[in-house]
Write a structure and sequence with these properties.
With about 220 residues, this protein is of the alpha/beta class. Helices cover about 40% and strands about 15% of the residues. It has one domain: NAD(P)-binding Rossmann-like Domain (Rossmann fold, 3-Layer(aba) Sandwich). Helix 2 packs parallel to helix 3. It starts with a strand and ends in an 8-residue tail after the last strand. The structure holds NADP nicotinamide-adenine-dinucleotide phosphate (NAP). NADP nicotinamide-adenine-dinucleotide phosphate (NAP) binds next to helix 1. Pfam families: adh_short. GO terms for molecular function: oxidoreductase activity, acting on the CH-OH group of donors, NAD or NADP as acceptor. InterPro entries: NAD(P)-bd_dom_sf, SDR_enzymes, SDR_fam. This is NAD(P)-dependent dehydrogenase (Short-subunit alcohol dehydrogenase family).
Length: about 220
Amino acid sequence: MPTILITGANRGIGQALATSYQAAGWKVYAARRYGGAVVPEGTHPVRLDVGDEHSIKALKDQLGDEPIDVLWNNAGVFLDKGKDLAKLPDEDWLESFRVNCVAPIRLAEMLIDNVAASDRRVMAFTSTKMASLARYGQGSIAYRSSKTALNMAVRCLSHDVAPRGISCIMLHPGWVKTDMGGEAADIDVETSVSGMRKTVDQAGPGQQADYNGRFFDYDGSAIDW
Ligand SMILES: NC(=O)c1ccc[n+]([C@@H]2O[C@H](COP(=O)([O-])OP(=O)(O)OC[C@H]3O[C@@H](n4cnc5c(N)ncnc54)[C@H](OP(=O)(O)O)[C@@H]3O)[C@@H](O)[C@H]2O)c1
């Protein structure tokens, strides 16, 4: 039975990922930052505030050397959604970088041996098309810049982990109906998750050239940087 660890698994896309993998028979570590937050039935709840290095270390201590086939860095924040940049405190911009960029890389570093010890050896990172320099838009500068930084960090990480057979994959989930995406979004969480899974579930040590360090839309098409 493969094992996956998903961050931000208590709501939105992360919760739907946890539900989907649990239903498919995987062992699912559903990470949520607050102990009271509910995660899908049948998953293994674990505590993780991705922005807190002590919390990351405590999770590593809990997991020990257990192999993790897929580490899915899903948790994220969009603190400047609909906000005027002039009114955005620097703290919010820095927090966007901490949660959206620094945290996924720190967690990946901490769990690299667990992923390397697994059969599939995949690290997935939920990014966004809004981070694409080729498709740049306007507004949401804190969010966009934090995710663009994530993309670069993951590209660098993908080179570092390649010798260990690990594939780092960046994904755009679509514009999804969640607390973050809002009711007007294009697709529901199930459509997003089933689409992204088609990409992530095909990756593995034998397919590194096709997946490692690449950026995919939820429909499997490649996204320009
Ligand atoms: N929805 C979209 O249209 C869309 C589009 C492109 C990309 N994305 C990306 O997809 C991912 C999931 O988005 P979503 O729409 O599901 O968002 P969401 O509904 O707002 O859920 C965000 C999740 O991240 C968790 N989280 C935030 N900060 C955290 C922290 N410090 N430690 C641990 N968990 C933390 C939240 O936990 P709490 O409940 O504790 O706050 C929650 O579980 C994000 O990375 C987002 O940037 C979403």
